[in-house]
Design brief:
434 residues; 2 domains; binds pyridoxal-5'-phosphate; aminotransferase; adenosylmethionine-8-amino-7-oxononanoate transaminase activity; pyridoxal phosphate
């Protein structure tokens, strides 16, 4: 019947979940309700209780084309007939080399190192930076410059470059390598409802960056930054002038620039990559999330021939590196992206979000409303009650996962205007309840 998932009904799933499963960023059992999903199709999730929800999260930035896409399904099925997996040490295969060549063409970078999650791609980037410093006779450069408000993942190297105070990893701060932190960038990029113009970059902030990098250049192997959008650390949009300045400073001081495009990559911000807002190319780039259109876990760390040649042997090798199913579906997802009018789609979503979220601007519980590309954010005055907000938005037929002081959306590009309107109405209702 309609309420069944495979052989289990909703109650059975949720009981086993409560007894045995640990969900992300949650206690056991979860203090926030967990919902069983039966199907995902297009931009909608169907829950085991029969409810249909428009997905406002793209499964954390990933499912840009929507779910159960015939082309992506076919890519996995076709690849499955040849091989699900082979080790990547000393073996290679068509889906991986095709994908590497496509990524190189899209980014202007030369070498692609495949990993299995965004966090691992960041670990690899950090290792590349240290190995390159050491290989070029600057082994004393053992730190990274990172930016407060940033988020780069949950593994130790990645945690060490996340915001140490406001971020989610403060429990570990005593155990992490110490890096150099630039202040949170002033948020003056993107759009606010009713504001015609964007403020320019803050010259004082540009100056601060310059002073900080100059003071620490002797100990910096790399600068790591989320281009233009800081994601899970606060959903902040900052001016591309900062990114350009970081690129200049990296060049002047012989420091590598690592762009973490795991969230921002593949069109989400209205440009193919966040770096494109600034017209810069990083020395190392991390991609993940939307790389496979939300189908399989895959990420990659890309770099220049110069850095790769300088490093030589990179001591890293995940068991599932270059997984054929994942690289095949990533290839298909990038083909789909090249074919779809993602620029127009994200522009249309941007306009829909701006229009739909305008009502929330003057609500008492709302601190700020901002939009960039297919990303819409209501920042609240106080931390939200996640269960309560989810209950409200689910009542509007929408799936969102707020956290902290953020009620936000990054919908699939396939969302139509009426689906974007459902999402913004749900967000506005949630904001009205604060
Ligand atoms: N870097 C950024 C900018 C992210 O948004 C994320 C997302 O979680 C990560 C790194 C970590 O990726 P993953 O969750 O795949 O390990």
């Amino acid at each position: 019947g309609g309420s069944r998932v495979g052989g289990m009904n909703e109650g059975e799933i949720l009981r086993l979940d409560e007894d045995h499963v640990w969900h992300p960023y949650t206690a056991v059992p979860s203090t926030v309700p967990v919902h069983a999903v039966r199907r995902a199709e297009g931009v909608r999730l169907t829950l085991a209780d029969g409810r249909e929800l428009v997905d406002g999260m793209s499964s954390w930035w990933a499912a840009i084309h929507g779910y159960n896409h015939p082309r992506l399904n076919a890519a996995v099925r076709d690849q499955l007939d040849d091989m699900a997996h082979v080790m990547f040490g000393g073996l290679t295969h068509e889906p991986a080399v095709r994908l590497a060549a496509t990524l190189a063409g899209m980014t202007g970078l030369d070498r692609v190192f495949f990993a299995d999650s965004g966090s691992v791609a960041v670990e690899v980037a950090v290792k590349m930076a240290f190995q390159y410093a050491s290989a070029t006779g600057r082994a004393g450069r053992s730190k990274l410059l990172t930016v407060r408000g940033g988020y780069h993942g949950d593994t130790f190297g990645a945690m060490s470059v996340c915001d140490p105070v406001n971020g989610m990893h403060h429990l570990f701060s005593g155990l992490l390598p110490q890096h150099v932190f630039a202040p949170i960038p002033p948020g003056e990029y993107g759009f606010r409802p009713g504001e015609a113009t964007q403020a320019g970059p803050d010259p004082a902030y540009l100056g601060e960056l310059e002073t900080l990098v100059a003071a620490h250049a002797h100990e910096l192997a790399a600068i790591i930054v989320e281009p233009v959008v800081q994601g899970a650390g606060g959903m902040r949009f900052y001016h591309p002038a900062y990114l350009r300045r970081l690129r200049e400073l990296a060049d002047v001081h012989g420091i590598l620039l690592i762009a973490d495009e795991i969230a921002t990559g593949f069109g989400r911000t209205g440009e193919m990559f966040g770096c494109d807002h600034a017209g810069i190319r990083p020395d190392i780039m991390c991609v993940g999330k939307a790389l496979t259109g939300g189908y399989m876990t895959l990420a990659a760390t890309l770099t220049t021939a110069e850095v790769a040649d300088g490093i030589g042997v990179l001591m890293h090798g995940p068991t599932y590196m270059g997984n054929p199913l994942a690289t095949a579906v990533a290839g298909a997802s990038l083909e789909l992206l090249a074919e779809r009018p993602w620029r127009e789609e994200t522009k249309r979503i941007e306009a829909g979000l701006l229009d739909g979220l305008a009502e929330a601007v003057h609500m008492p519980g709302v601190h700020d409303v901002r939009v960039l590309g297919a990303i819409g954010v209501i920042e609240t005055v106080d931390p939200v009650d996640v269960a309560k907000i989810q209950d409200i938005v689910m009542g509007h037929g929408v799936w969102l996962r707020p956290f902290g002081r953020l009620i936000y959306t990054m919908p699939p590009y396939a969302c139509r205007p009426e689906e974007i309107a459902m999402i913004t109405e749900a967000m506005v209702s949630a904001a009205a309840s604060l």
